Amino acid sequence: MSSSRPFVVIAEFRVKPGSLDAFLDLAHDDARRSVADEPGCRAFDVAVSESDPLAVVFYEVYDDRAAFDAHLETPHLARFRAGFPALIEAERPVRFLARSLSGAEPA
């Protein structure tokens, strides 16, 4: 395993009213395929705001930037990219972070 910190990606979307189920279908496919098919993808969570059910956040963790760059070339991301623009009102700028700690990992 690399000594570099895991690479974290946070993506946020505002979904159009009436489009949440279709958006989540695409998002769940991308998330599941990322974890199943990409050795460098450690986690890919899709979360919906309790206070604003049209606000969706992705929290993705990759071994490193190279693993994320490989994700950008996958067929499941291509499916998501093809389908999601018609389903959203807005997309916030993607944020990139270096994870300091996961409480799920042993010390």
TrEMBL record:
Pfam families recorded: ABM
Keywords linked to the UniProt accession: Monooxygenase, Oxidoreductase
Keyword match Acyltransferase: no
Organism superkingdom: Bacteria
Domain ABM, chain residue ranges per copy: 7-96
Molecular functions per Gene Ontology: monooxygenase activity
Protein name: Quinol monooxygenase
Organism: Methylobacterium ajmalii
Taxonomy of the source species: Bacteria, Pseudomonadati, Pseudomonadota, Alphaproteobacteria, Hyphomicrobiales
